[in-house]
């Protein structure tokens, strides 16, 4: 497999992106190509960017508490487009919401304190890279 290409995206009105930038930098340091959308992106924009960029992974970050709605919308749009990629999420997400998000089709939710190495190992393991 060539370099893993990851889209790091901030859906919704959340304006805090330090964590997303740290993750993006960490993934790049582990040899992955990263495209960062910046803050306040719509689910439609995120899915369109993922398709245009041909990413292997979408990494969603949300700190606003709107993760259930926004992540589910993105999964619905991905399903409608039939674009297939790994989708992971993170941010301030209560543990009680994780089963719901996994049921929506996300592959993994990384909670605060997860190391970059854990993320890299999960992504590489899932993509057989």
Topology:
Layout: E1 5-9, H1 18-29, E2 33-36, H2 43-53, E3 57-62, H3 67-81, E4 86-91, H4 98-103, E5 108-110, H5 116-127
Parallel strand pairs: 1-2, 1-3, 3-4, 4-5
Helix pairs in contact: 2-3
Pfam families: B12-binding (PF02310)
GO molecular function: cobalamin binding; isomerase activity; metal ion binding
Keywords: Cobalamin, Cobalt, Isomerase, Metal-binding
Label this structure with key terms:
129 residues, alpha/beta, Rossmann fold, cobalt, cobalamin, Acid_CoA_mut_C, isomerase activity, Cobalamin-bd_sf
Q: Provide the CATH superfamily.
A: Cobalamin-binding domain
* Envelope shape: globular
Beta-strand content: 15-25%
CATH architecture title: 3-Layer(aba) Sandwich
CATH top level class name: Alpha Beta
Rg, alpha carbons: 13 Å
The biggest beta sheet reads:
5 strands, parallel
Poorly predicted regions are none
Helix content: 40-55%
Average pLDDT works out at 94
Class from secondary-structure proportions:
alpha/beta
| Widest beta sheet: strand line-up | 2-1-3-4-5
**What number of structural domains do the residues give?**
1
Keywords: Cobalamin, Cobalt, Isomerase, Metal-binding
Protein name: Cobalamin B12-binding domain-containing protein
Domain B12-binding: 3-129
Cofactor: adenosylcob(III)alamin
Task: Sum this structure up briefly.
The protein has 129 residues and is α/β, with parallel strands linked by helices. Helix content is 43%, strand content 19%.
Fold and architecture overview:
This protein has 129 residues and is of the alpha/beta class. The chain has one domain (5-124): 3-Layer(aba) Sandwich (Rossmann fold), CATH 3.40.50.280. Helix content is 43%, strand content 19%. The chain is built from five helices and five strands; from the N terminus they run E-H-E-H-E-H-E-H-E-H. A five-stranded parallel beta sheet has the order 2-1-3-4-5, with helices on both faces. Helix 1 links the parallel strand 1 and strand 2 (33-36). The longest helix is centred in the middle third of the chain and has 15 residues, at 67-81. It is globular, with a radius of gyration of 13 Å. The termini are close together. The model has no long low-confidence stretch (mean pLDDT 94).
